Amino acid sequence: MCIRDRYQRRVREVQSCAMPKRSTHTFASEENAEPDILRVYYCLYCGTRAMVIDADIANLPKRRTDGSTVVETGGHTFRMMLERGEHKLIKRAGGYERQYRMNCTKCSLPVTYQPTPEHPERVFLLADSLSDKPKVSFGDDDVPDCIQPTVNGEVRASFTITSKADRCRIKRVEGNSVEIEVKDVDTDERTNQLFMQYLVHVLGCSRENVELDFGAHSRNKVYLIKQKTPVDVYHKLKEAAKVMPSKFYKATADHCIKGEI
Question: How far is CA 115 from CA 96, 120, 144, in A?
Answer without folding.
Answer: 11, 7, 38
